[in-house]
Amino acid sequence: MKFNIGNTTVDFNVERIRKEYPGKEAFFSDMISAHGMIEEKDFKKVLERVWKEAFPKNEKTEVNPEEKESL
Amino acid sequence: MEILGTIGGICDDTDQPHTKQSGCSSFEGITDGFYFTNPGALFDTDEEAFNEEIKNAVYESGIKRVIPVFGLTAVTVNGGDIRTNQEGWGPEMPTGTNAVREDYIIPLGGECLYKQVAKMNKRSMRVFRVDQAMKSFGTAIRQSDEIKQRGFLLNSVYVTLRKETEGQIGAIILSLFYSVNYENELINKHSVQLGEKAEGLSGIYLEKGSASGKAKVRITCSGDDVTSVYGSDLADRTLYLSESGTNPSSVEYNSSGELTITPAGKYRIADAATLKNAGIEGGYEGENIFGDIA
Description:
The complex is a heterodimer of chains A (71) and B (294). By secondary structure, chain A is of the alpha+beta class.
């Protein structure tokens, strides 16, 4: 997912974020500290969108059809 | 007494030479450059298809990769002489030709080009010669029901460097050692008119920037910084690979002219095709070097 924030362009790897970050706080904290030149308020809005893409709300509740059959 | 058995003739009298001389005959012209390929690479014989294949093959990985080298200014040919045998007072009997070696001079490109072409030293490759009229010359081969073409087989390539002296400019000397099958390949020579020259690639690598996680993209030989040239196009996670082959979590380009890559670690830049697809035109390829930006 690519975003332009002012003079800055950031591309996020949603798959890797999904695998590596157990929680939103750790993700936000790492990203804000690494991308320190971006205005924090705008960046947080972007991070929210990335996090939602990585972990859509219905993903946790949706049951894989194959698993459903075996239940 | 009856005579049984026959000895098959070795002269193929069905293959008649047809020798009418065209009013518009042509020979392969002065060589301006080469397209080197892997020994197993085959290409279309059709002009349009071949031009397209060559243009794309510069960016291909693996067996289809083509390496262009242009700007030749002189050649010395050795070998290709008729070998003969003479028994007693009998006539000389030709037995074939001896192996051919060509030494080409490249005055442009300097030490940077030398470092790159020297990677081909001792390699067996194939070569399409391209003359000054932009015609490529290779050899045709039948594969199943199709006629394909490929470059002439080189047993090896060897590149040496001549430094400047008072009376002579510096140059790269590119020596081609053709295989023993070269004579047969010449009989099946195939020529295609080329549209435009495909240029070679430049190697690039990541170098640590002003702090941990910050990086710059530099050209391997000159060390020139091209980060700001491509700017936000470089903010693309698919262009960077860790030692385990994964792309980073995020990549940022900002007006400071540096990239920020998370997590900080060792990364290399992707291959030529990936860079081209991401809009990084200009013929670059990531070297197989993992730059430590931690």
